[in-house]
Structures are given as structure tokens and as C-alpha cells.
Design goal:
Order of helices and strands: HEEEEE
CATH architecture: Roll
Strand content: 25-35%
Oligomer: single chain
Largest sheet: 5 strands, antiparallel
Radius of gyration: 12 Å
CATH topology: SH3 type barrels
Number of domains: 1
Number of strands: 5
Number of helices: 1
Helix content: under 10%
CATH class: Mainly Beta
Structural class: mainly beta
Shape: globular
Length: 81
């Protein structure tokens, strides 16, 4: 994955932050996803954490895809949002 990807800033969190902050099975809210605005505000369950990305199955997706990939800074724990 390129470090110049438009969804990432120059001080992007490293993979360890994702692993330390989130775990598989947790409920999260999508809060800052500039590439997928339709998902902002929705909730889902983490199904996998792979390096800097987190796979989420969204409860009520706005499109056909129930499972999407987000970065750690685009998610909050559901109770923290």
C-alpha cells in the first residue's frame, strides 16, 4: 500500500496503533472516511486487522458491499463516538 494514498496524512499511525487500539469482534463507528462518505456515521464489527487496515462488516451498508476496509484514524469504538 502506498504511503502517498490520498486517505493518509504524512503522520499516519503505524500498524501497531491499529492492533493496540482495536480488536476483532469490537463494534466501531466509521467517522472520518473521506473516500467513502456514505459510510460515515455507520456502525459495524471488526472482522480482521491487517497491518494498517481494518476490515469492518457494516450493519446497514449504503451500497452492496457489507465488508469494507478502513484505516485506524477513520474509526472510533462505538461507545467513544
Amino acid at each position: 500500500m502506498s504511503h502517498s494514498y490520498p486517505r493518509r496524512g504524512s503522520n499516519a499511525p503505524i500498524a501497531a496503533v491499529a492492533a493496540a487500539t482495536f480488536s476483532v469482534g469490537q463494534r466501531v463507528r466509521i467517522v472520518r472516511s473521506p473516500a467513502s462518505y456514505a459510510y460515515n456515521g455507520l456502525v459495524g464489527v471488526i472482522t480482521a486487522i491487517s497491518g494498517e487496515t481494518i476490515n469492518v462488516i457494516v450493519d446497514e451498508p449504503p451500497m452492496d458491499s457489507h465488508c469494507t476496509v478502513f484505516y485506524v484514524e477513520e474509526l472510533d469504538l462505538e461507545g467513544d463516538a
